[in-house]
Amino acid sequence: MSGVEIIATSPNRTFKGFQVTARRVNNSTNPEELLGIFNTTDGDSKVITCLGQPQKMLGHATNATRAVVNATWTAPTQNAGDIVFHATVVENKTVIWYDITATLRTSNNNNIQPPVHTVPPVTTLPGLPDWDECGTSKGCFLYPGSSKTTCSGDDCVAALSYRSSGDLFTFELTAEGQDFYVAVGFSEDRSMGDDQVVICTALPGHQTVQMSYNPTTRKTTNKQYTIGLSNLSTKQQNGRVYCTFNSTAKLVSIKEDGSSRTFDLGKEKYYLFLAWGPLYRGTDVISKHTQTAISPDMMDLLTISGAVPMLTGTSALITSALCLAAWCLLKP
């Protein structure tokens, strides 16, 4: 068991929010892996379920101003090698300290166990979606925005395409915005909550495709392991963000209570949401979306639609994100 301490080192300096996780120093095959468990007896701190696993993150429980945080961390039972702690600290609404690190060296370099899961790499999209295929080889949902009534693809504010081949689905997403993310949500109703979300970022050096689950109890999205996704690609070009990925028909999310939630894209109909918005500068951390769009009806993704106009969304898909790669800070 090791002690974990966050200290405001400058005199009279304090902070309000924080999140801490532990990872391998060499985590290139699985940057999502979180190690050990945190414990705290401080009423202003809490342990957080992340990636469906309890106590994998330490965070703030209140907005109390503080100068120091103390907690304990218990290492995994199997040797994972050198460990690095990553912290993000919110001093105030305009001053956020990202990726503060401290390394804990292993005393034994023998029998180091590899990660259980391997995360697929994200590449740069070599080309752009062909929207002329809408209605023939793939279905499309197009959002023209409020200034026009129709659009055909890259002239849309946002757009989504899909196609299926056996048990595999291919999705293409795009939205207007420089240094933006774009996300798709699968929902059983027009209001987000208890839904599957895939979020794409394309900032150079921070290209990610992230699986998340929207719980019903709060307007945040809880990151899941990237299991069921493959052929991940993103790109920024001409003031737009683009993303493509393959998905198995069944996507499974783990709720905070440990129960599982299965989304079967091949057997069930879903409303399709699109959301897009800015990233925090120089990171893959999403902020509140600037806009959302929704399919007019629940959709059968085994059936190819034509170019279907999307409606302006009236409910939040995501307002902030928990357990993302660069650790977005949340209000408790």
Automatic annotation (TrEMBL):
The protein's UniProt keywords, in alphabetical order, are:
Iron, Membrane, Transmembrane, Transmembrane helix
State whether keyword Membrane applies.
Answer: yes
Start and end residues of each Reelin domain? 1-121
Q: How does the protein's chain sit in the membrane according to the entry?
A: Multi-pass membrane protein
Start and end residues of each DOMON domain: 154-277
Write out the annotated subcellular location. Membrane
Determine the domain of life of the protein's source.
Eukaryota
CDD domains membership: DOMON_SDR_2_like, Reeler
| Chain segments annotated as transmembrane | 307-330
Q: Name one GO cellular component term.
A: membrane
* DNA-binding keyword on record: no
What InterPro entries does the record point to? DOMON_domain, FRRS1L, Reeler_dom, Reeler_sf
GO biological process: any one?
regulation of glutamate receptor signaling pathway
**Cofactor(s) for this UniProt protein:** heme b
Write the protein's name.
Reelin domain-containing protein
